[in-house]
Amino acid sequence: NAGVTQTPKFQVLKTGQSMTLQCAQDMNHEYMSWYRQDPGMGLRLIHYSVGAGITDQGEVPNGYNVSRSTTEDFPLRLLSAAPSQTSVYFCASSYGGTGSPLHFGNGTRLTVT
Amino acid sequence: TQLLEQSPQFLSIQEGENLTVYCNSSSVFSSLQWYRQEPGEGPVLLVTVVTGGEVKKLKRLTFQFGDARKDSSLHITAAQPGDTGLYLCAGADGGGSEKLVFGKGTKLTVNP
Description:
A: 11 strands; 51% strand; B: mainly beta; five-stranded antiparallel β-sheet
């Protein structure tokens, strides 16, 4: 089982560049989310989706866009990369419902210079 | 905004020792989850506790949910090097939202 697949695993961007982090899950999960993980800050929610066509903001949404055109895919777009967006990004999914356990991908390590 | 405070932030012990990690909040959670994360990988769910006072055991790991559902603890007996990792607690507020609030984690190192 593939579970949650994130690509790329590593990425280096220059300030001002844009890019899309890909996330796909094969578990037919309704809920998908993006987190960023920074040293000493834990996991912070960027955006989430409770189903295809529905997205909402999390704790730290500025500078990021998402869309959910299918149940399987939930890409995260950086519009104009900034050094403050240097982080490890995790995509996670669950079947939905309060407190559903999350299944995480293995992350994308992004460096913005 | 609900917050989860984890302590200690770092813990380095010798193989065979016991340890306890704490996850505290001033907010009530409908459920609380514990995850373990190893370097270069995403967090993996260890357990979910739902009922106040609930105790769950997973081999040498014992998880407890506080009676008031505001705190939780993870106790590891006879720690082994394979227990090394980042332990994260996450709470669900029970308001119908699937969103989880994460603590900042406890980085555990078990030395052989």
